[in-house]
């Protein structure tokens, strides 16, 4: 048995909202058993609310780790919605519906978590609300309360998470500012957490409304304008197709060239792209989306005149039409600087990164194979001549 000190520490370690719910879940049943509280006062009826303005709320367990204000707002939203649904369909008991609302949200945010039910039956968390509803229907012959909870929970999940994240819509549900007063942390705690002075914390909190207003006015308008008047997917696709086409012709493409081409394509797409700048940030995200890296171009293909290449492409079929594919060979040469060390290295933070003179010793290698790739000739290696003739 743990000591009283251990129990006290454990109780204090519970997050404040969960601790309040835990305490109430013990006190309320005891108070009902001792007849200190009338249980019928905890049941929702339309007449007392409408005629006598009696309001009762039910709060169940749920965890928004580190976001108590968001959690409180979530519970308030679920509570109001469940009351509205309860009044509409004459559902006096809200306990099951409220619990199911919280369970549904958690399961949607943790879809891939493996859950266990009766007889160690395992399934993903996304199916848990439906399993519980089916269980209640089998045992009690009713699933109305649980279905209402699922509907209310899905409403919150869609408005708070799915719509703004997956559909790129506006953030329709926002935690009221008065609930976000430092998340209940003292100024000293905030100063230690963000490594700033107490004076800075005090000044920020005093000007909180001003900062929040600037953030919502500037950033939110930019995001809204970006998604509604700017079809980034269409532009991204056309720029990428152009890039792939140019690289298929071995034409070197720098970041500056890619940005300029993106601006050109944006102009062709219409007025919706007037604000598109093809900034360095856009370029970096474009490269990451398509796994484009910056490398040194090797070989001489990029130096070939484009006109000459086009003429040769037109003439080549006339030359090769009398030969089988296996008898058509192609060769190209390259150089190997066999004494050249890498120009990049792992270094210590305190170490100065100094290089040395690059070795120019090299050999030339000629590679040759047929067009089917079935026959590869031995590479021809040419080194430095022993004697130079003048």
Automatic annotation (TrEMBL):
<dbReference type="GO" id="GO:0003677">
    <property type="term" value="F:DNA binding"/>
</dbReference>
<feature type="transmembrane region" description="Helical">
    <location>
        <begin position="71"/>
        <end position="94"/>
    </location>
</feature>
<keyword id="KW-1133">Transmembrane helix</keyword>
<comment type="function">
    <text>May be involved in the degradation of misfolded endoplasmic reticulum (ER) luminal proteins.</text>
</comment>
<keyword id="KW-0472">Membrane</keyword>
<feature type="transmembrane region" description="Helical">
    <location>
        <begin position="114"/>
        <end position="139"/>
    </location>
</feature>
<dbReference type="InterPro" id="IPR035952">
    <property type="entry name" value="Rhomboid-like_sf"/>
</dbReference>
<dbReference type="Pfam" id="PF03221">
    <property type="entry name" value="HTH_Tnp_Tc5"/>
</dbReference>
<keyword id="KW-0238">DNA-binding</keyword>
<keyword id="KW-0812">Transmembrane</keyword>
<feature type="transmembrane region" description="Helical">
    <location>
        <begin position="146"/>
        <end position="164"/>
    </location>
</feature>
<feature type="domain" description="HTH CENPB-type">
    <location>
        <begin position="223"/>
        <end position="296"/>
    </location>
</feature>
<dbReference type="GO" id="GO:0005789">
    <property type="term" value="C:endoplasmic reticulum membrane"/>
</dbReference>
<keyword id="KW-0256">Endoplasmic reticulum</keyword>
<dbReference type="Pfam" id="PF04511">
    <property type="entry name" value="DER1"/>
</dbReference>
<dbReference type="InterPro" id="IPR007599">
    <property type="entry name" value="DER1"/>
</dbReference>
<comment type="similarity">
    <text>Belongs to the derlin family.</text>
</comment>
<dbReference type="InterPro" id="IPR009057">
    <property type="entry name" value="Homeodomain-like_sf"/>
</dbReference>
<protein>
    <recommendedName>
        <fullName>Derlin</fullName>
    </recommendedName>
</protein>
<dbReference type="InterPro" id="IPR006600">
    <property type="entry name" value="HTH_CenpB_DNA-bd_dom"/>
</dbReference>
<dbReference type="GO" id="GO:0006950">
    <property type="term" value="P:response to stress"/>
</dbReference>
């Amino acid at each position: 048995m743990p000591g009283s000190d251990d129990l006290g520490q454990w109780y204090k370690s519970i997050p404040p909202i969960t601790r309040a719910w835990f305490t109430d879940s013990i006190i309320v049943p005891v108070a009902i058993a001792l007849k200190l509280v009338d249980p019928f006062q905890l049941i929702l009826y339309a007449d007392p609310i409408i005629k006598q303005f009696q309001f009762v709320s039910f709060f169940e367990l749920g965890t928004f780790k580190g976001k108590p204000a968001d959690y409180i707002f979530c519970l308030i939203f679920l509570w109001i919605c469940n009351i509205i649904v309860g009044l509409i369909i004459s559902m006096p008991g809200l306990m099951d519906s409220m619990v199911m609302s919280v369970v549904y949200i958690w399961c949607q945010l943790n879809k891939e978590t493996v859950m266990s039910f009766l007889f160690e039956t395992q399934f993903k968390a996304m199916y848990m609300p439906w399993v519980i509803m089916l269980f209640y229907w089998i045992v009690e012959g009713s699933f109305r309360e649980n279905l209402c909870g699922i509907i209310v929970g899905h409403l919150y999940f869609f408005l708070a998470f799915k719509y703004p994240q997956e559909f790129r819509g506006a953030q329709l549900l926002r935690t009221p500012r008065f609930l976000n007063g430092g998340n209940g942390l003292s100024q000293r705690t905030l100063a230690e957490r963000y490594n700033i002075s107490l004076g800075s914390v005090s000044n920020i909190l005093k000007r909180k409304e001003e900062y929040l207003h600037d953030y919502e006015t500037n950033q939110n308008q930019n995001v809204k304008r970006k998604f509604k008047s700017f079809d980034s997917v269409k532009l991204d696709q056309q720029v990428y197709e152009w890039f792939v086409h140019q690289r298929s012709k071995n034409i070197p493409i720098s970041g500056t060239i890619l940005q300029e081409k993106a601006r050109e394509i944006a102009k062709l797409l219409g007025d919706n792209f007037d604000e598109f700048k093809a900034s360095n940030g856009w370029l970096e995200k474009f490269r990451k989306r398509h796994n484009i890296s910056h490398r040194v171009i090797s070989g001489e293909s990029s130096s070939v005149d484009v006109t000459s290449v086009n003429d040769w492409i037109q003439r080549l079929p006339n030359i090769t039409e009398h030969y089988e594919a296996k008898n058509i060979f192609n060769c190209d040469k390259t150089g190997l600087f066999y004494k050249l060390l890498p120009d990049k290295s792992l270094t210590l933070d305190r170490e100065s990164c100094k290089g040395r003179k690059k070795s120019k010793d090299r050999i030339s290698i000629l590679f040759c194979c047929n067009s089917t790739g079935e026959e590869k000739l031995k590479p021809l290696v040419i080194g430095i001549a022993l004697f130079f003739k003048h």
